[in-house]
Amino acid sequence: MKHIVPEQKRVFLPVVDNNQLFPVGRVFCVGRNYAEHSKEMGDDPERDPPFFFMKDASCVVPVTYSNVTPISYPMATSQFEYEVELVVAIGKGGRHLTMQQANDAILGYAVGLDMTRRDLQTQAKKKSRPWEIGKSFDESAPIGPISLKNAQLTADISTAEIGLKVNGDTKQISHISNLTWSIEEVICKISEVFELRPGDLIMTGTPENVGAVVVGDIMQAWVAHLGEIRVSITG
Q: How far apart are CA 226 and CA 30, in angstroms?
């Protein structure tokens, strides 16, 4: 049977040192998962624990380590902001996962950007409306290749440096050890309200000092032991 409209294109991420591709399913995002970022957003990290929102899979832009990948300055905003994040790729699904099952569910890790139309997000927050207009839009999730999990990489990632530069100037810098909820805790919490599936991605939160970019800017985002992605803003 034919489709009545053209089928939407699937998004796939490359896997480091592997000729297979990772088919992107859902993209879960964690809010307020670094205490200092919670504070700069006007929240109390002790009172307001992290929570979850989503981006559509079509928001994902595959980024290589070798080239600068362009994304367009989006419509309807004058405050387009970066948020560097560690991304976790899920290889096994399930509900109500234990900490060990959460660890087993991890296929690998990547560097990502949760690009945000901050002015639209702020307007939505003030009116207690959903955030999708500020978070889930075209090209809002540039993500690098997935590095497959192994014991050494998992140990290294748990304390790895995470950071972002704009035009060579350091804007964000922290360590994964500063996560309010650990990677495994995040997976457990998500699995309490959603059944996780292979192909899901989890963006684990951003450190403090988020800020705006304009056309012509180049962002360099990295997590130690994974590599660096470079993304430019075009008109």
A: 20
Average pLDDT over residues 72-100: 98
**pLDDT tens across 29-53, in order?**
998 888 654 555 556 656 466 789 9
Say whether 48 sits in a helix, a strand or coil. Answer: coil
Q: Please enumerate in sequence order all residues whose Cβ is within 8 A of that of 111, keeping only pairs 6 or more positions apart, or say none.
A: 84, 85, 86, 87, 143, 144, 221, 222, 223, 226, 227, 228, 229
Selection from 14, 27, 16 nearest residue 149 by Cα: 16
Q: Say how far apart CA 220 and CA 230 lie, in whole Å.
A: 5
Closest CA to 166 of 69, 232, 74: 232
Tracing tokens 């970022």 back to the chain, one arrives at 37
Contact 28, 135 (CB under 8 A): no
Mean pLDDT of 98-122: 98
Q: Residues 6 or more apart from 206 whose CB is under 8 A from it? A: 33, 34, 37, 83, 84, 85, 114, 172
CA 198, CA 201: separation in Å to the nearest integer?
9
- 12-234: CATH number: 3.90.850.10
The torsion region of residue 105 among left (phi > 0), alpha (psi -120 to 50) and beta comes to alpha
Query: 3-state SS string over 140-178?
Result: CEEECCEEECCHHHHHHHCCCEEEEEECCEEEEEEEHHH
Name 60's Cβ contacts closer than 8 Å, sequence gap at least 6. 11, 13, 24, 27, 141, 142, 143, 201
